[in-house]
Design a protein that fits this description.
CATH class: Mainly Alpha
Number of helices: 9
Strand content: 5-15%
CATH topology: Outer membrane efflux proteins (OEP)
Strand order of the largest sheet: 1-2-3-4
Structural class: alpha+beta
Shape: elongated
Number of strands: 4
Helix content: 55-70%
Distance between the termini: 15 Å
Order of helices and strands: HHEEHHHHHEEHH
């Protein structure tokens, strides 16, 4: 199983997307450091207007008032805002890591359940093979006694019908193995029909999960979907700081160069500053900052709800797991041995010509069904264990 989980962590395309998302947000952080583009312009200037009174000279001097003008302008960035925006975009990296870990937790849960489905199905196939050999032996013995009137034909037909049922069950269980393998292959980004050998020699791992350590702090640090909310709040706070930096003025510089028709040159240099504290402009970023405050409060409430829900689910799943373990233990220690003894007693009597194949067949059928039911209960227990591990993100 660990090999499969390691393969999913490396090969699954869904998990690979988050590294690219982080690169994209980091690139936006670099873009935030850019300056506004310089502004260049060219045009004509004339002083005064042609239709105004000319007190500077006669009409022949009109050409002296015409000028060709070139303007260059550059606004300097708000370096404080740039720094805060860069930090804001880089803060998406931890969020992407949280999302990746959350998705990996869910993918691992799917893989574990599929793996246990396949493993239990393989155990069932082994059981079906063993019970099939026992039944074939009973049929052979009964057919041998048929000539001596020690067995009846209808009971032999019933035994053969049970044999057909076993073969049908084998087909269904084999299909379950194939389905589970297909899921494991798809999660590992392998061809869905690629062969995958399940290690049936591996014992079932029933972990002793201790939930005494589980509290609000544990959930907030181990559950990445809840930790994601914390990181998201941090990003909003950084964005809030970036918006607050709009209250700082932004400076710029403008240079105009003019050439008169007479060949004379003039220039103008002008420094500029924005006034963001003006009421008609400040209400924009102030309202945005206030909106983020409400958003943060809302997310904290949502996180509190997530923590309470997680604690409740962990407790419920843990109690469910304890009950499933007790039930399985009783089934293993008492139920199956009782049916096994019943079958063995009937088999001994049948071997000594003191019993009937029908009673032996019914005892065999009851034992087979209980053994199959044991594996069903074991699979249910393992699924509950996986759900608990997923809730605790272990």
């Amino acid at each position: 199983m660990q090999q499969i989980l390691d393969s999913i962590a490396v090969r699954n395309p869904g998990l690979q997307q988050f590294a690219l998302k982080t690169e994209a947000s980091n690139a936006l952080g670099e873009a935030a450091k850019a300056w506004d583009p310089p502004l260049a312009g060219a045009g004509l200037s004339e002083f005064p207007y042609p239709f105004s009174d000319n007190k500077m000279g006669g009409a022949g001097q009109l050409g002296a008032r015409e000028m060709v003008m070139v303007r260059l302008q550059q606004m300097f960035p708000n370096f404080s805002r740039q720094s805060k925006e860069d930090a804001y975009f880089h803060s998406f990296g931890p969020q992407n890591e949280d999302e990746r870990a959350t998705m990996q937790n869910m993918l691992f849960a799917q893989a574990k359940m599929a793996y246990y489905d396949a493993l239990v199905a393989e155990k069932k196939l082994t059981l079906i093979g063993e019970q099939e050999r026992q039944l074939q032996l009973l049929i052979e013995i009964a057919e041998g006694r048929l000539a001596f009137n020690k067995a009846v034909l209808p009971n032999i037909y019933k035994a053969k019908a049970k044999l057909s049922d076993l073969q049908s069950d084998s087909v269904k269980v084999s299909s379950m193995v194939d389905q589970a393998v297909s899921i494991l292959n798809s999660l590992s980004d392998r061809p869905v029909d690629a062969p995958l050998m399940i290690d049936t020699s591996n014992s079932f791992q029933q972990k002793q999960i201790d939930i005494l350590q589980v509290n609000s702090a544990y959930v907030q640090t181990h559950r990445t979907d809840i930790l994601h909310t914390t990181d998201e709040i941090h990003s909003i706070q950084l964005n809030q700081e970036a918006s607050s930096s709009l209250a700082k003025p932004q400076f710029g510089l403008s240079w105009d160069n003019m050439r008169m028709s007479s060949g004379m040159y003039m220039y103008t240099v002008m420094a500029m500053v924005t006034i963001p504290i003006a009421p008609w402009s400040s209400k924009g970023y102030k309202s945005e900052v206030g909106s983020m405050n409400y958003q943060i409060q809302s997310m904290k409430k949502m996180q509190d709800s997530q923590v309470l829900q997680a604690l409740g689910n962990i407790r419920k799943d843990w109690l469910n797991l304890q009950a499933a373990r007790k039930e399985l233990q009783i089934f293993q220690d008492e139920v199956i041995p009782s049916y096994a003894k019943t079958y063995q007693a009937n088999l001994n009597a049948f071997s000594e010509n003191a019993g009937d194949i029908y009673e032996t067949l019914m005892a065999w059928n009851d034992l087979t069904m209980k053994k199959m039911e044991y594996y069903d209960k074991l699979n249910d227990l393992l699924h509950i264990q996986v759900i608990l591990e997923t809730e605790m993100q272990q």
